[in-house]
Specification:
- The chain is built from 5 helices and 17 strands.
- By secondary structure, the chain is an alpha+beta fold.
- Strands 9, 10, 11, 12, 13, 14 and 15 form a 7-stranded antiparallel sheet that branches. Strands 5-6-8-7 form a 4-stranded mixed sheet, with helices on one face.
- Strand 5 and strand 6 form a beta hairpin.
- It is elongated and about 90 Å long.
- The termini are far apart.
Length: 264
């Protein structure tokens, strides 16, 4: 039986539906007014079809994101993934416009909190958004870095075949430390050009002078190998703090049947 409530705009079904057995209540006035307001708005038209209120909201959000992306530097990788580099100041702006960024910032855990002086990563499918401060630079090899301490003025840079002695500390995308040579008794030493150093780290070392310290963002294509036999299970962006401590030139010398290497 249909009756009228005090406000004729809000009909209600008395007590119980005979078939479903459901008790139906009148619409709240505030919600009804919101529906009335949406109904009188002029809908936008796409082709032959009118856009709903939800579609209009999504379209405004898409345009806002597209506008924000025009301020970012985009790098496309061979595997189909991409990197969007934003300034750190745009992080709060993207929080309002990008639900993926907002979810990352609002997630519990230390990794959701941007660390001062470190890049901040937000993964969105095959795309990675990286927020960095203005004192970071980019080189021709695709490395993003900033100099933490200058090396020797006029100092030489290592070349292929030379041995480098260096310290490093590695961080994952959440800014958590995952490895460090500082835990060991001596810093590692390796020859440039033999493929024994993480590619991105080697490229950074070849551009440094003795005494220099850098914070370097290494993309997955220049990162360490992955797999069951390695320390890393999946490709990801990594941040390395690197200090070049010394450069040595090595020469092999043979005495009878023994070959020794002398480095100076």
């Amino acid at each position: 039986m249909r009756v009228q409530s005090r406000n004729a705009r809000f009909p209600l079904i008395r007590r119980r539906d005979a078939v479903l057995g459901l008790t139906l209540l009148p619409l709240a006035p505030a919600f009804a007014d919101e529906l009335d307001s949406a109904a009188v708005q002029q809908p936008e038209v796409v082709g032959e079809r009118k856009m709903s209120a939800v579609e209009r909201l999504k379209e405004r959000q898409r345009k806002a994101l597209a506008e924000a992306e025009t301020k970012a530097e985009k790098i496309q990788y061979d595997d189909g993934s991409s990197l969007l580099i934003y300034s750190r100041e745009s992080l709060e702006d993207l929080r309002q416009k990008d639900p993926v960024v907002r979810q990352r910032l609002n997630a519990p855990g230390r990794g959701s909190i941007p660390k001062q002086g470190f890049p901040y990563f937000v993964r969105d499918g095959f795309s990675m958004k990286m927020f960095i401060e203005d004192d970071f630079s980019r080189d021709a090899d695709g490395l993003t870095f900033k100099v933490l301490a200058a090396g020797k003025v006029g100092g030489v840079k290592p070349k292929d075949g030379q041995k480098v002695i260096f310290d490093f500390t590695a961080y994952n995308e959440g800014g958590e430390q995952i490895d460090s040579s500082l835990r060991k008794a001596e810093p590692p030493a390796a020859k440039i050009g033999l493929g024994t150093i993480v590619p991105g780290v080697e490229l950074a070392l070849k551009d440094m002078t003795v005494g220099e310290r850098r914070r370097v963002v290494v993309p997955p294509n220049l990162g360490p190998p992955t797999g069951p036999s390695t320390f890393f299970s999946a490709k990801q962006f990594q941040t390395f703090d690197i200090e070049l401590k010394d450069i040595k030139t090595c020469v092999e010398k043979q005495t009878l049947f023994v070959t020794n290497e002398e480095c100076t």
